[in-house]
Amino acid sequence: MKYNRILLKLSGESLMGDKNFGIDPSRLQQYADEIKKVKEMGVEIAIVIGGGNIFRGVQAEKSGIDRVQGDYMGMLATLINAMALQSALEQNGMYTRLMSGIKIESVCEPFIRRRAIRHLEKGRIVIFGAGIGNPYFTTDSTAALRAIEIEGDVVLKGTRVDGVYTADPEKDPTATKYEQITFSEVYEKNLNVMDMTAFTLCQENNLPIIVFDMNKTGNLSKLVLGEQIGTLITDKS
Predict the structure, then answer these.
(1) Model pLDDT for residues 60-76, shown as the tens digit of each residue
(2) Domains held by the chain: number
(3) How far is CA 40 from the centre of its chain?
(4) Where are the beta strands (DSSP E) in 187-235?
(5) Is 138 assigned a ligand-binding role in the annotation?
(6) CATH number of the domain where residue 120 is located
(7) Is 31 annotated as a binding residue?
(8) CA Rg, the chain, in Å?
(9) 45 — phi, psi (to 5°)?
(10) Using N-to-C axis directions, what is the helix angle for 139-149 and 113-121, rounded to 10°?
(11) Residue 78 assigned to a binding site
């Protein structure tokens, strides 16, 4: 096993599947199946999921909503997704804990670092909702920060593309994929991987990032076993 404790970052948009809004039950079940396979291998799993399929805080200002208010609305959207994922995982027989950056005791625990680590050690899947609890920070930043706090081995960023490319592969057919790239090269080439806060946190704490296609069956399992899937970002040789 290459990775013993992972932080899986999923986008809210990925839960839409072929829909234009909300949660696609078949996509939710697919993710639960993939996560279960990895859990049964003995990997400790923490998850951060976005809320873009419901509401994006950064777009709130365009509709006249205050940016801070919009960010809190976005945090609540991530909690809706986290609750849906928690339900799907538990229906598949897994033990989970949902921890929130803002206090909503009726549905989840507040984030406490030592408690989160203890849950992982006891074999529970820990889902982090509501970001870090403060506006102006993305769920990418949440993923980076929580991964560092729980002493994770890697951030696995599941997307709809199979890695980092020289350009947007959906717009440029000549774009080529990087198998491995350094943090410095990502900066220099101005590649869009994560927001700068999240990216810098990972670099300064020597936390590798792997960008991969979460929608392809088996990719997550192959990754934790050490197969070359997606793009590895690290400054280590």
Answers:
(1) 777 789 989 999 999 99
(2) 1
(3) 20
(4) 209-213, 231-233
(5) yes
(6) 3.40.1160.10
(7) no
(8) 17
(9) -125, 125
(10) 70
(11) no
